[in-house]
Amino acid sequence: MSKLIEVKDLKKQFENGDVITKILHGVTFDIDKGEFVSIMGPSGSGKSTLMHILGFLDVLSEGQFLFEGRDVSKLSDDELADMRSKKIGFVFQAFNLLNRSTTLENVMLPLLYTDMPKKERVERAKDLLNQVGLGHRLDYSPNKLSGGEKQRVAIARALVNNPEVIFADEPTGNLDSKSGLQVMKVLQDLNEKGHSIILVTHEKYTAEHAKRIIMLKDGLIEYDKPVEKRQIAKDMGDLIK
Amino acid sequence: MNIVESVTSSWKIIARSKTRSFLTMLGIVIGVMAVIIVLSVGAGAQSLILNQVKSLGSNLIGVLPGNSEKDGPPASALGIVVTTLTYEDGQDILKNGCDCIESLAMYATGNDIISYGNESITTNYTGTTASYIDVEETEVESGHFFDAEEEKTSARVAVLGYEVKENLFGTEDALGKRIRIDKTNFNVIGVMKERGVSGFQNQDNQLFIPISTAQNLLLGIDHINYIRAKVNTPENAAYAVESMEQILRDRHNIGVDEVDDFSVRALSEGLDAISSITDALKFFLVAISALALVVGGFGIMNIMLATVQERTQEIGLRKAVGAKSRDITFQFLIESVVITFVGGSIGIILGVLISVAVAVVAQNMGYSWDLVISPFSIILACGVSIGIGLIFGIVPANKASKLSAMEALRYE
């Protein structure tokens, strides 16, 4: 399998005046295309910072980060935005939907920053909402959706650009266990279909839905190994067609 | 992200919080409205003043007794009685002045009690020459104006202004009736057509008698108050003024170094002076009302800055899904331009409506008020509102685009 992400001795520190806070002290790992990896760790372990760097939202301080063989640290702000637009989809704990726009508009949002003609955008967004089982809620405001439905809208949004990899940052954190399982089911199904998924979580149970866990502690990798007893989210109705 | 979509999405954002958007754009609405109204009402008032003067005839030349500065008021206008101008002066001008002088009227005015039967009013009478009707380009409604013969013989005949006739006679026919000015009897031989206000004077509230009658029987003077001469075209006015001055200087024996004891003025000169004064006033008012636009601009900047704060998460999200900094700048700039443009449009509509209303009311009150709404002022107002949106939108838009996506996403 070809390499998606190669990280070598990655370090990150924040400077705030004279105070330097070291978050990542040098982490090294590779992720192949098609993998389903959990980045796990307690709060303060640096997992969110690592995800921001991997998701082109932040830049590393030291070390190397190659995405599809390309050195990310050499990219300009606009090129980073371009990478975010084309290569990755985000799913956030707080959903981050625009409540004043409709479900359909929310899913279309990433396409706004591409060259895709409007008609195609609408088609693609509708198609994805159908896939996550929300084809009947196109004109709803996200306010009127349940937490699970919101997160499925967010997943549809993350998929709309046909990204190489989906980053899910505590996607079940704001959900009840049933909705959380639904979301994990969607992510597992997506992975079955060949999408690379990187899940960031502090819960062991959630992390075990992935195939591999990278455990962070105090800015270093504590362990990096395949999941032995993988949790498989039960099929709760055919959510993804 | 193309411009049409940005505008429609901005419009949606503005439309969903109507009250706030309206309050935001209120400054621009008022500013643009004020500018349009000031321009239009200013032009209307200017037309009123100019029409008043023009209604006297822009090819008229006035001669007043007493010297005056070129741009200052004549002495007689300040209430100083100067007796240097005579009937003979006028006749000489008519006879020896330039050929461009078509006709000439002289005036000796007074104010007295006019009575008919039991009715009496106090009003102005104008002793004038038979040529009055030609010089002032007016007409009688019934009867006739006195002729040169009646003028020469100091006939006791009177032509009533429209209002004087109404006040004294009501619906009764006035022709041939006998009225009294002070204690002197006059025969009514004509009634003037209704003329309204012209030259800042109610032309209907006076009556006309031969000038010699006024001088000899009523006023007991041998000077006249002023002369008006009509030239064939306004272009000849300057030449006519010169020839009239020459004649009067000769007649009054005024040496080369001596000061004139009269003033000759072409009305067209006055028109220019009035135009430049009213123009200056108009632009002064426009400048003041434009201040409202600037204040409105700061209002918009303030709200846009608050909006950026409020929508930090949205900005973070947009960046996370691929928006470049310039996309964010563009979005917020378009938003403030849409706000100012909509505000400007509302301001233009209100401004035009109010201008029309003012003109209609003024016209109904009998003023010769022109409705002037120049397309230029509307284009200018549109341009200025868009410009204000751009100028005052830049700071908030820049602030928005500089937010770090990661920090913006975390913002609560």
Throw out a few tags for this protein.
heterodimer; A: 241 residues; alpha/beta; six-stranded mixed sheet; four-stranded antiparallel sheet; 7 helices; B: 412 residues; alpha+beta; six-stranded mixed beta barrel; two-stranded antiparallel sheet; 13 helices; 12 strands; 56% helix; 18% strand; elongated
Distance between the termini of chain B: 27 Å
* Largest sheet data of chain B: 6 strands, mixed, barrel
* Largest interface: pair, residues per side: A-B, 25 and 21 residues
Strand order of the largest sheet of chain A: 6-7-8-3-9-10
Low-confidence stretches of chain B: none
Rg of chain A: 18 Å
Gross morphology of chain B = elongated
Number of helical runs of chain A? 7
Mean pLDDT of chain B: 86
Percent helix of chain B, as a range, is: 55-70%
Would you kindly provide a written description of the structure presented here, covering whatever features stand out?
The complex is a heterodimer of chains A (241) and B (412). Chain A has 241 residues and is α/β, with parallel strands linked by helices. Chain A is 30% helix and 29% strand. Chain A has seven helices and ten strands. Chain A has a six-stranded mixed sheet with strand order 6-7-8-3-9-10, sandwiched between helices. In chain A, α6 links the parallel β7 (165-169) and β8. In chain A, α4 packs across α5 (147-159) and α5 packs parallel to α6 (177-192). The two termini of chain A are 26 Å apart. With 412 residues, chain B is of the alpha+beta class. Chain B is built from 13 helices and twelve strands. Chain B has helices at 3-16, 18-54, 87-96, 132-135, 148-152, 162-169, 211-219, 237-251, 267-310, 312-320, 325-364, 375-402, 405-410, and strands at residues 60-65, 101-116, 119-128, 140-143, 157-160, 178-181, 184-192, 197-198, 201-202, 206-210, 226-231, 262-266. In chain B, α2 (18-54) packs antiparallel against α12 (375-402). The mean pLDDT of chain B is 86.
